[in-house]
Design brief:
This protein is of the alpha/beta class. The chain folds into two domains: 206 residues, no CATH class; 212 residues, Rossmann fold (3-Layer(aba) Sandwich). 50% of the residues lie in helices and 10% in strands. The strands form two sheets. The chain has a seven-stranded mixed sheet with strand order 2-3-4-1-5-6-7, sandwiched between helices. Strand 6, helix 9 and strand 7 form a beta-alpha-beta unit. Helix 1 runs antiparallel to helix 14. The protein is globular, with a radius of gyration of 24 Å. The chain starts with a helix and ends in a 16-residue tail after the last helix.
């Protein structure tokens, strides 16, 4: 049985590995992989890039996420927090923050802080009364809190307040000059017609259509209010607990509550967006409060996307390092880290052998089919900068594919044959295509586009 404590130990080993790599050539000295002189500097720079440093800092400094909740009273803020964790979390007493329009508190479980919250409880009052001093106090309190994300809650069953809320929200955010993710959660979509349907897996097409319409309506209103590219996620936090009056229980009794009826909808989608958009030191803590097996897979995906972004950056450099071979040092480290998440102490030779053994298995995605045809010639045991340059999209694709194969092999105990079948499924190739198109070049911060196939 894997534990959070054991995962902490594995993560620390990953951080130690990454911190120990000062020179990739020295790190791989016993593998007979010759890195071209022109490539050494850029590879070392990439292994010490912001993407990789974020992983190390996240492990060493992970902490509870700080969320700024914005919404009217009674919109279901506590219910949503409980739905995010699947537990009835105890809310601590509010901390004085210098304004009557916000409360700061934490949600805790087993004496561990799960979330830190600033709740703008004066939201509707500030809409109704033009009080600049109160708004200034609220803005200062939020800035001092330094939230990782803004979670704007809108009651999906209430049509009367959306426009006023959107207008005030836009003014508030403009005055704060926000640089963290802003997510609008449309709550209580279980109350949309047919309201009798509470079990999310059994929602009728009519209810799904109404949820979609509600989401589009909120997006339109937010855009009309001046909020660009709004992220809107419809959710239901409907849960029936094992006690009908949980608010009357002691903290210990609340922590022992179980879910009698689970009517949650799209909570996983909200969690995924938070984890992907927040700073890693906050999202890692959130991941680790999930089931440990889920946490391991989520962290593995973070590693894959980070190393894929690094590979894409290498491919865009002006010196001749775009050759697919030069990506292997990055991919060796990627495989070692993924195996470490399962507690497997993989040495560098074994990681290199794993990549070689894949042959046409993991390297079938998009632009890498030509590499798969080369078999073990793929590595040639020497990385040469011979000029066969690849695009950022193909570089991303190759490292992404190897990472996904490592996840399936080391974390999911899949055989090479099973990996071959799974990675060739149309839905897997489409997922890879979308991931590549959404990937970010860490040097230019521009979207990576996959190479147009001839």
């Amino acid at each position: 049985m894997q534990s959070k404590k054991e995962l902490e130990k594995r993560l620390q080993k990953i951080a130690n590995i990454l911190e120990s790599i000062e020179s990739m050539e020295n790190y791989l000295h016993n593998l007979n992989i010759k890195i071209p002189k022109a490539s050494k500097e850029i590879i070392d720079k990439m292994i010490n890039s912001d993407e990789i440093k974020e992983i190390v800092e996240g492990i060493n400094e992970h902490r509870p996420p700080r969320l700024a909740l914005i919404g009217r009273s009674g919109v279901g803020k506590s219910s949503l927090i409980n739905a995010l964790t699947g537990s009835y979390l105890a809310e601590t007493s509010a901390v004085e923050v210098g304004t009557k329009d916000a409360d700061v508190y934490t949600y805790e479980k087993d004496e561990e802080v799960i979330f830190e919250i600033i709740d703008t409880r004066g939201f509707e009052e500030n809409i109704q009364v033009d009080t600049h001093s109160a708004e200034d106090e609220l803005i200062k309190a939020i800035k001092d809190f330094e939230p990782d994300a803004f979670l704007v809650l809108n009651d999906g069953s209430d049509r009367t307040t959306l426009k006023a809320d959107a207008k005030y929200l836009n003014e508030l955010l403009n005055n704060m000059d926000v640089e963290v993710p802003i997510i609008t959660a449309v709550t209580r979509v279980d109350s949309l017609e047919p309201a009798r349907e509470k079990s999310a897996p059994e929602y009728s097409q009519k209810k799904k259509n109404n949820i979609k319409d509600k989401k589009n309506q909120v997006i339109t209103v937010l855009k009309d209010a001046g909020i660009e590219n709004p992220v809107v996620i419809p959710v239901s936090a409907y849960v029936e607990w094992s006690n009908e009056s949980p608010e009357l229980l002691t903290k210990k009794e609340q922590e022992e509550l179980t879910i009698d009826y689970d009517g949650r909808y799209n909570i996983d989608g909200l969690i995924e967006h938070l984890e992907n958009s927040m700073e890693f030191k906050a999202s890692l803590n959130m991941m680790m409060n999930d089931r440990i097996d889920n946490a391991i897979k989520k962290i593995a995906q973070k590693i894959v996307h980070s190393f894929s972004g690094v590979s894409a950056a290498i491919a865009t450099t002006p010196i001749p390092v775009g050759d697919i071979f030069v990506l292997v040092p990055i991919q060796v480290v990627e495989v070692i880290l993924i195996a470490q998440l399962k507690g497997i102490e993989l040495d560098k030779e074994a990681a290199k052998d794993f990549i070689i053994s894949l042959g046409g298995v993991a390297l079938v995605g998009l632009g890498l089919r030509f590499v798969a045809q080369q078999g073990t010639k793929f590595l040639n045991l020497a990385i040469v900068g011979s000029g066969s340059a690849v695009s950022a999209g193909v570089a991303y694709s190759g490292t992404y594919s190897i990472g996904q194969a490592a996840i399936k092999y080391y974390l999911e105990d899949k055989s090479k044959e099973e990996i071959d079948i799974e990675l060739n499924k149309p839905e897997e190739l489409e997922k890879e295509k979308l991931d590549i198109e959404d990937g970010q070049d860490i040097k230019t911060n521009k979207s990576i586009k996959k190479r147009k196939e001839s």
